[in-house]
Task: inverse folding
């Protein structure tokens, strides 16, 4: 049985994170952006999910007063569909709730049905649209989760 673990992201994780980021997004964040988020952004918290001690996914959030904005979440393509994204998101929600934050929001591409399904599974609901939000003019669906 392989061990699955979620923990806070560290600077030493960033090479693995960048590999996943590049495989997951058309417009990936740079290594510098992740370094800044982990080292300098006091309002940010990033997590990784490990499978058999290998970093295979990550997720991040920003704390904005009493709300959390999920910035990104991704699982390495070779490890998708194994419930790791669910485990990661569940852990992030539990962390938020453990510090008394119950409102979470995010934006997701209209075409990204898999991610929308993941968010809906954890109680996020579609609450609006940001038209032409992405670089290719694709709309963003705004989702919220509130207790
Ligand atoms: C979105 C993502 C993180 C999901 O990670 P994952 O580890 O594959 O997710 P899980 O295996 O935990 O599946 C979670 C839910 O997603 C949905 N899902 C997963 N694979 C799916 C597929 N092929 N088709 C439709 N829905 C799917 C299901 O609702 C699933 O829950 P269920 O199995 O209980 O029905 C992953 O697909 C990914 O990294 N995508 C690229 C990056 C991305 O788009 N991130 C989101 C940006 S907003």
Result:
């Amino acid at each position: 049985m392989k061990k699955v673990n979620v923990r806070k992201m560290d600077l030493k994780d960033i090479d693995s994170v960048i590999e996943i980021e590049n495989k997951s997004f058309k417009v990936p964040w740079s290594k510098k952006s992740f370094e800044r988020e982990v080292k300098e952004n006091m309002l940010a918290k990033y997590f990784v999910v490990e499978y058999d001690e290998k970093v295979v996914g990550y997720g991040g959030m920003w704390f904005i007063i009493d709300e959390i904005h999920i910035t990104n979440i991704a699982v390495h393509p070779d490890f998708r569909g194994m419930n790791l994204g669910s485990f990661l998101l569940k852990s992030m929600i539990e962390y938020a709730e453990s510090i008394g934050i119950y409102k979470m929001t995010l934006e997701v591409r209209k075409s990204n049905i898999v991610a929308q399904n993941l968010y809906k599974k954890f109680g996020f609901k579609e609450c609006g649209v940001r038209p032409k939000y992405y670089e290719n003019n694709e709309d963003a669906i705004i989702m919220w989760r509130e207790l």
Observations:
- The first helix runs from residue 14 to 24.
